[in-house]
Design a protein that fits this description.
The complex is a heterodimer of chains A (283) and B (244). Chain A is an alpha/beta fold. Chain A is 40% helix and 20% strand. In chain A, helix 3 (79-92) links the parallel strand 3 (62-65) and strand 4. Chain B is mostly helical and 244 residues long. The relative contact order of chain B is 0.11. The chains are: A alpha/beta (283), B mainly alpha (244). At the A-B interface, helix 2, strand 5, strand 6 and strand 8 of A face helix 1, strand 1 and helix 2 of B.
């Protein structure tokens, strides 16, 4: 149906691009072979963001990661925003386009967070319709990312892996597996992250994400992990990555660090660690 | 059933109860878990405002700024997924906030900061050199129309906005003295800067912006040092087109 493959990112580490690292990256990107950008930051008319993006895209494969399409929203997609996404994708022809199993807009309002939804037949059919519209507009297959969850909906009738498997099947999209999100959700909702990975349709996964989380407690003193992307990746998440890669084989592997962003060498060290994890399944 | 309308209602209203149907792993309602989303939304919006309005943040102090920004964010959530547009009416909100009536210059400083951000993301242009104007015949120069760059933004104030803005971000600069100041934000390559304009220069620049010819713009602003303004405009690469 689409003339571009789902994902042509290299089976190598990538990093979430931060403008403050531009000079470091252009000088020596180390073992990082590709970069992800948050689409909405590159939707101005001109200036430095787009100039840097063009330079980056001329040297590295780019993954365009949307945070504002609100694919899980109850209302219709924002056609104007989708058109902007197409303009951006047409500009740099990314190796991958991905979005989230979440909603962030309500009517005209944008809430600037990835908000959760119940997994029901109704939400399933709505999400598949939205993904159809996105893929048809962009003319490319997209990846849908599993969320971090802090709570459960009593009305849900699907497990998350089954829900995502069904979405991928019906909408013909790929999936983006965020291993940190699995770990965060598993801790918060008291399920086994290994069981989640075992149940996940890994054959549909075009990209894996890793990131850091913060630790808190809920009203009952139970651990409550927050997906903050503001620190190193936790050791149990690296361990879960190894288990995932053992099942799935090598995949493009992204390290995300979005708040309290450190200097380039700290990020490059995380990418090195991701490269080592990939090496273990590549040989 | 928990609709997104229910879920949204409590995100921006800390006094609203948690929507029904949201639980921990054992089916027990857990307000603190819903609170994570409430906190994420508010804090991310307040952080965005702090990044976008550093001079206002400095003038008000961290605690005052964040309290005020929280109030603004809850009443005025973004209307677009483009966070670069968020805070367009922050200046207006400051103007309407009674508790800030003793700082009447704040709205103009906020407008200046939003102007810098708009300039940063504005379309690129092809800067024209001064020589392109000077190489024209004298009568052509009179009739020439100079189009300003999309990133050029003019602001006029009854307050010393240039000096207050500079002082807010660098308290070692001279204390601002009461004076009306006009500024022109120009982006030479990627970094917009506010330039303090001489008296009446704003009239001249507004006339250019309205598509008047150079001689009409000069007539419009009789007591202006036109040479100095043209030097500023061309040196900073702010002329996108010359039409004769």
């Amino acid at each position: 149906m689409f003339d571009t493959p789902m994902c042509s990112l290299p089976l190598a580490p990538g990093l979430g691009y931060k403008p403050q690292h531009f000079a470091d990256i252009m000088q020596d990107a180390g073992r990082t072979r590709w970069f992800e950008i948050h689409a909405e930051n590159y939707m101005g008319q001109g200036g430095r963001p787009l100039a840097q993006l063009d330079a980056l895209a001329s040297r590295f494969p780019i993954s365009v990661h949307g945070v504002g399409l609100s694919i899980g929203g109850e209302g219709p997609l924002d056609a104007e925003h989708l058109a902007r996404m197409k303009t951006l994708c047409d500009r740099i022809n990314p190796a991958s386009f991905s979005e989230h199993l979440a909603w962030s807009s309500h009517g005209a309002e944008y809430l600037n967070d990835l908000l959760p939804l119940p997994y029901t037949n109704a939400s399933l059919s709505r999400i598949c319709d939205h993904i159809d519209q996105v893929q048809a507009t962009l003319g490319r297959k997209m990846l849908l990312e599993n969320p971090s969850s802090y709570l459960a909906f009593s009305e849900s009738t699907w497990s998350e892996p089954d829900f995502l498997r069904e979405v991928a099947k019906r909408a013909g999209c790929g999936l983006l597996l965020d291993v940190n999100n699995v770990f965060v959700s598993a801790t918060n909702l008291e399920f086994s992250p290994q069981d989640y990975i075992a149940a996940f349709p890994l054959e549909e996964v075009g990209e894996i994400h890793l990131g850091g989380h913060d630790e808190d407690e809920d009203d009952h003193g139970k651990p409550l992990l927050i997906d903050s992307h503001g620190r190193e990746i936790a050791d149990p998440v690296w361990a879960l990555l190894d288990i995932t890669l053992a099942y799935s084989g090598p995949r493009p592997l992204l390290v995300e660090w979005d708040t309290d962003v450190p200097d380039w060498p700290v990020l490059a060290a995380e990418a090195d660690r991701a490269a080592q994890a990939l090496t273990r399944v590549l040989v | 059933m928990t609709t997104q309308t229910d879920f949204r209602a409590g995100l921006l209203n800390p006094d609203a109860p948690m929507p029904e149907g949201l639980t921990n792993a054992h089916g027990v309602p857990s307000p603190k878990r819903y609170g994570v989303y409430r906190n994420n939304v508010t804090v991310s919006l307040v952080d965005a405002l702090q990044t976008g309005f550093p001079a206002i943040h400095s003038l008000l102090g961290d605690q005052n700024f964040r309290a005020l920004a929280t109030h603004y964010a809850r009443a005025n959530p973004p209307q677009s997924p483009l966070m670069m547009l968020y805070g367009a009416d922050f200046a207006q909100f400051l103007a309407q906030t009674q508790a800030l009536a003793h700082l009447p210059y704040l709205p103009d400083i906020a407008a200046l900061e939003y102007g810098l951000r708009s300039s940063y993301h504005a379309a690129n242009h092809d800067p024209q050199p001064f020589s392109a104007l000077l190489s024209l015949a004298p009568e052509q120069i009179d009739d020439a129309k100079l189009a300003l760059a999309p990133s050029a933004i003019l602001m006029q104030s009854v307050w010393p906005i240039h000096d207050i803005y500079t002082f807010a971000l660098d308290p070692t600069t001279p204390q601002p003295q009461a004076a009306a100041q006009d500024i022109l934000i120009l982006r030479k390559e990627f970094d917009p800067k506010p330039h303090l304009l001489p008296a009446n220069a704003a009239k001249f620049i507004r006339a250019l912006g309205a598509g008047k010819t150079l001689s009409q713009a000069i007539e419009n602003a009789p007591d202006t040092d036109v040479g100095a303004i043209l030097t500023l405009l061309f040196t900073e690469g702010a002329i996108a087109r010359i039409t004769v």
